[in-house]
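Researcher: Next sequence.
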Amino acid sequence: MLRSLKKILESVLSKGIYDIIKYLLFIMITGITGLLTHLLASSVKYLIPYAIVIAIIAAATVGLLGLLVYKQYSPIYNVYTKTDFKYIFLEKECFYEYIDMHHIIYQKKIKLKILCESIDRYYDKYNWTGGDNLKISSANKDHTIILTTKRDSFQQFEVHFGRSYRKGDVINLHLTFELQDNENKANSAISSTIVEPTKHLRLKIKISKEYREGVANAEIFPIIDSRIALDKFEKSFDNNGVIDWEISNPPMLLVYSLRWNIPKS
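Model: Next structure:
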């Protein structure tokens, strides 16, 4: 027990000392730059009136450059690099449509841009809360959908392209989920988590008046399991029973959700 506490204290102290030294070194370099610049400017007759201003500009420039370099190579700031991702979502659309209270069609349209040298598949997951099985199909007949492992409530799956794509190639995916919910167990919500760099996200639902009540809630959560939304607002259905929510450049790891109420009887 005492050894564990000692190790924890040593770790905390060493981390704290490292941070102090790091920031002191940064301040020292900036200060020395300003001082040396002031001395050099003061030695030139025509620069003497501007010596202080020049010193401040030089120190600020070195400070900003140092900060940029630190953010570029520090693991704290540089968490997501280009090599972390196999592709980027240029467009991602999730469309949830009630055919009737027991039959729902969910479509996912994605435009992928490849960031690696060789990609032959796409990884995804779903969480279907209805009591019945679902069917997944791809609009591209060359694509093969394979269910893999199940983690928590999410079923993982892969879409095999049937060929390899190179860096810079763009792939259009169109997946259709046929959902059956005979006992009305499914949650009345759709959501999308930003786990890959995404340029444009679109959440769309189409529900006839007889299958819904009131307006829908648009919510943004910091993580999947969070119960407290970062932002929440109402969105109204149009005359065709559609809500179309578009988001440009959504931040990484945020969860975007549309939730609505279904009739109780």
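Model: Confidence is low (pLDDT under 50) at residues 4-13, 75-83. Helices lie at 2-42, 51-73.
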